Amino acid sequence: MGLEENKERARALFRGIEAGKREPLAALFVADARWVIPKSAPEPFAGTHVGAEKIADMMIGSLEASFEPGSADWRVGLMVAEGDAVMAEANLCARTPTGTFYDNQYVFVVEFDPASGRIAELREHVDTRYAASFFERSSTGR
């Protein structure tokens, strides 16, 4: 696949997360895809998660549990592509049911399976300190 096609497939990931539909999101991944999240992330997200269905369930489930429906807005910035990989800067803005605004920066490395064009591995780099603090404050009402 070409570099621009890979960038478009990476954009489809963010659109898929925003749409909140598990099956179409899972279809973007190979069956045994891997999602790697920093060790410092809050549980149960820290670590490596395997399987398209599990990844989609975790992604959609975390949005449903944390944010007002339809409020998640992935703002994709710089994208750099090389071979079968795309690196994308992204900003997630969303609102909790209590009205608190979440605004965190991410970098994703998306590696595609060359045979299918689907995501084989997604490596997430995020400000885990901000996220943990935000969700701690949100759960305690502070």
Question: Helix and strand layout, with pairings?
Answer:
Layout: H1 3-19, H2 22-26, E1 29-37, E2 47-50, H3 52-66, E3 73-82, E4 85-95, E5 101-112, E6 119-126, H4 128-140
Parallel strand pairs: 1-6
Antiparallel strand pairs: 1-2, 3-4, 4-5, 5-6
Provide a quick synopsis of the model.
The protein has 142 residues and is an alpha+beta fold.
State the main characteristics.
single chain, 142 residues, alpha+beta, Nuclear Transport Factor 2, Chain: A, 6-stranded mixed β-sheet, 4 helices, 6 strands, globular
Structure report:
The protein is an alpha+beta fold and 142 residues long. It has a single domain, classed as Nuclear Transport Factor 2, Chain: A, CATH 3.10.450. Helices cover 35% and strands 38% of the residues. The chain has a six-stranded mixed β-sheet. A hairpin with a 5-residue loop joins strand 4 and strand 5. The model has no long low-confidence stretch (mean pLDDT 94).
CATH topology: Nuclear Transport Factor 2, Chain: A
Q: How many beta strands in the DSSP annotation?
A: 6
Tally of discrete structural domains: 1
Strand order of the largest sheet: 2-1-6-5-4-3
How would you classify the quaternary structure?
A: single chain
Shape call:
globular
Unreliable stretches covering 5 or more consecutive residues: none
CATH structural class: Alpha Beta
Biggest beta-sheet profile: 6 strands, mixed
Structural class: alpha+beta
The helix/strand series, from N terminus to C terminus, equals: HHEEHEEEEH
For the record, give the distance between the C-alpha atoms at the N and C termini, rounded to a whole number.
48 Å
CATH architecture: Roll
Give me the Rg, rounded.
15 Å
**Mean pLDDT rating:** 94
The percent range for strand residues is 35-45%
Helix content: 25-40%
Count of individual helical segments: 4
